[in-house]
Automatic annotation (TrEMBL):
Residue ranges constituting the Aldehyde dehydrogenase domain according to the UniProt record: 11-372
Protein name per the record: Aldehyde dehydrogenase
Keywords: Oxidoreductase
Gene Ontology MF annotations: oxidoreductase activity, acting on the aldehyde or oxo group of donors, NAD or NADP as acceptor
InterPro entries: Ald_DH/histidinol_DH, Ald_DH_C, Ald_DH_N, Aldehyde_DH_dom, Aldehyde_DH_Superfamily
Coiled coil: none
Keyword Oxidoreductase recorded: yes
Length: 496
């Protein structure tokens, strides 16, 4: 707790944290099948209230109904995906070493290891995905699947939606047999900071700005007992296009680029903020034509102010050329409606301007960078774009056939997902997805999408020479949960 926190806040935060601890004592012992059923019921409950939730989300975020319905479906799929992950218990990674007096390195004790939930999780909801990265989003789904109660710090951009979603999901979890306070909601910056520092909270997950994420990560690290802070802080997602690729399909590539930048008004963490093309590329007409899209409301006044400021900063840099200048309209409440802006710069200017051009612009804005012949694109990425969620490479057909992974391998050092063609917006909710990347994309290079996301909320525990009655169910000889187990048999090492 912070020394300056008000007594009322102290009591509120302590109560939430205490309830989470009480829930953890029960939830961590719940069979995987019970948690899987609860996640499925939560997904079904969201579907039952879809019309109500989408209407609230539209009013609070300005996002289109079709986008929100698709996102709500994604949220349901995430919950069901993690139900599938935990149902058979394989995620526990159970390993049993039988006692072995003849082990090759000397007598081996009976050793039994499994992954176990870390404890209460604090999840800071995002603004740009009011369903999929919010109250019942991927971080919440993964933590609940792992057996961790979740405290969600609601985003101020959609407060009514957050409250209603929490009510619906929390009720479904309890009805399925999970303990009260398995899912709780708090509001306000002070409560979020206090909970990062609260000893009951064992992990924090965050999706938001680099500035806020760094502040919270510092608080998590400065605790007497530091905790992991999994923060997604932003990414500019460069797209690299070769001359041969442009010769083969320039129109298709440029149209796809504009569509990726403008979708959801550019308010996506995987939006391509930079397109690198060879010097002499003719792109103005195609980009300007594709950018003729209807205006779209930005999520909230804070994002609108940040977008207006960053666009003005970029346009004020000497040598920046406007390819298509979009509009910006604000109402009396500070909400803004925008159309996309695209600018172009030579590579040398990007290098010399530094942060003025390289810092993320959150919204429908992107920079086209012209690089000279002979440029090593991997070197450019290493120098200017060292950590991103995604990197996209468009090669010509002959280049792709000749490429033996050297360039791709070098690019993989700087992003969590490498696309060979296509566009980075649209993150598939599948087991193999990686949604993370080197700093500054994330504070800890894990993933917040895909089944591996559950690993952030688990830790390994080994029991040595433990009596059966003291072992957790997954490690007992009778295996009451029926989980898969890898067994190292007595005498096995003699054949190594």
């Amino acid at each position: 707790m912070t020394a300056t926190a008000a007594p009322e806040l102290d009591r509120t935060v302590d109560d939430v944290a205490r309830r989470a601890q009480e829930a953890f004592a029960l939830l961590s012992q719940a069979a995987p099948g019970l948690r899987a059923d609860a996640l499925r019921r939560a997904a079904a409950a969201l579907g039952d209230h879809a019309d109500e939730l989408v209407a609230v989300a539209q009013a609070e975020t300005g996002l289109a109904e079709a986008r929100l319905r698709g996102e709500l479906k994604r949220t349901q799929v995430q919950l069901r995906l993690f139900a599938h992950v935990v149902a058979d218990g394989a995620y526990l990674d159970v390993r049993l070493d039988e006692a072995d007096p003849d082990f090759v390195l000397g007598p081996r004790p009976d050793l039994r290891r499994a992954l176990w939930p870390v404890g209460p999780v604090l999840n800071f909801a995002a603004s740009n995905f009011p369903f999929a990265f919010s109250v019942a989003g991927g971080d919440t789904a993964a933590a609940l699947a792992a057996g961790c109660p979740v405290i969600v710090k609601a985003h101020p951009g959609h407060p009514r939606l957050s409250e209603r979603t929490a009510q619906i999901v929390a009720a479904a979890l309890v009805e399925a047999g999970l303990p009260e306070s398995t899912l709780q909601l708090v509001t306000g910056q002070d409560a979020g900071v206090a909970l990062v520092e609260h000893p009951a909270v064992r992990v924090a997950a965050f999706t938001g700005s680099q500035r806020v994420g760094q502040l919270l990560a510092a608080r998590a690290a400065a605790r007497p007992d530091p905790i992991p802070f999994f923060g997604e802080l932003g990414s500019v997602n460069p797209v690299l296009v070769t001359e041969q690729a442009l010769r083969e399909r320039a129109g298709e590539l440029l149209a796809g680029y504009v569509a990726s930048v403008t979708g959801s008004a550019g308010q996506l963490c995987t939006k391509p903020g930079f397109l690198l093309v060879p010097e002499g590329t003719k792109y103005d007409d195609v980009v300007a034509a594709a950018a003729q899209v209807p205006e779209h409301r930005l999520l909230n006044p804070s994002i609108a102010a940040g977008y207006e400021r960053r666009v003005a900063e970029v346009l004020s840099v000497d040598g920046v050329r406007a390819v298509h200048r979009g509009g910006f309209r604000r109402d009396a409440e500070g909400q803004a409606w925008v159309t996309p802006t695209f600018v172009a710069v030579p590579l040398d200017l990007l290098r010399s301007a530094g942060a003025a051009l390289l810092d993320e612009v959150f919204g429908p804005f992107s920079v086209i960078v012209e690089y000279p012949a002979g440029t090593d694109l991997a070197d450019v990425v290493a120098e200017l774009f060292p950590g991103n969620l995604t990197l996209t490479l468009h090669l010509g057909a002959e280049e792709a056939a000749a490429e033996r992974g050297g360039l791709v391998t070098r690019l993989a050092r700087h992003a969590g997902r490498i696309l060979l063609g296509g566009w980075p917006t649209g993150v598939a909710v599948t087991p193999a997805m990686q949604h993370g990347g080197p700093w500054p994309a994330t504070t800890t290079d894990g993933t917040s999408v895909g089944t591996a996301a559950i690993g952030r909320f688990l830790r390994g525990v080994t029991f040595q020479d433990a009596p059966q009655e003291l072992l957790p169910p997954a490690l007992r000889d009778d295996n009451p949960w029926g989980v898969p187990r890898a067994v190292s048999a007595r005498g096995e090492s003699l054949g190594w």
